[in-house]
Amino acid sequence: MTAMNLITKHRSMALRHALTTLLFLTAVSAASADPIPVGEIRMDGLRSRFNVVGGGAVAGEFVVNASRLSFTPHGLGKYGAAPDQFISFCVETTEFIQLNRWYSAELNTRSRATNQVLTSEIAYLYTKFTEGTLDGYKYFDSNASDSAKVASARALQEIIWYFQDPTGFAARYGTGAFDSGGYFLGSGAHKALARAWYDDVNAAIDGNLWTGIGKVRIINIWENSLGRQDTLTMIPLPAPVWLASVGLGLAGLVVVRNRRRASAVDAPIC
Fold this sequence. Notes:
Layout: H1 3-29, E1 36-51, E2 58-65, E3 85-88, E4 102-108, E5 110-111, E6 116-117, H2 120-131, H3 146-164, H4 166-173, H5 189-206, E7 216-223, E8 226-234, E9 260-261
Parallel strand pairs: 8-9
Antiparallel strand pairs: 1-2, 1-4, 2-3, 4-7, 5-6, 7-8
Helix pairs in contact: 2-5, 3-4, 3-5
């Protein structure tokens, strides 16, 4: 092969790679985008775990293995995670998952079991968590006590459930709203943190300090056509997002699925 042919081949490969990347970013940038297959993920561990209200399940900080994802999530290697891992939380209250098993992953702006659009509140809180600026959160690699770390993980998990799955939250905690008082009856460091973050996110949104969902997206997790759980991630997308308007065809990249949800019996996490 001549030098000119090599140059032409390399340019063609580079162009195809650039176009694929552009198509991917275009698809994930649109708030109304359909689910996009992005490879596989595995939950390598569950840290700062706590027993979920209602019994039979546990929750906490997911240690997510991203080595088989087709994009590089923001926040890899932070807070005691390995370079190919990031930290996340459950989204659904009615789906469950197991550790150390590879699952199919789709990037979405909706939780699949409830068909709930990702809320601005959750995007705000998870962005602050990932960037290390969530006031009062005791990160896993900090010198805080184990009980303080558990309280932090529990508070953030429960407020995620409140905003993203209010019906499931009400079924578990007996109230549909933080500000009605029911959730805060009784004691617990996690409830004080949740209240503080609830007030913080409402002040940010009411004061126009935060709008939309930023770089946060939901990963729908599947196994053999069964929905197992959803989790949160941050995509490496610049802001403001302009790619959504370029009008490129996404045929073959976006896959819409209508799958049955898995039974909650065989998986005890979340």
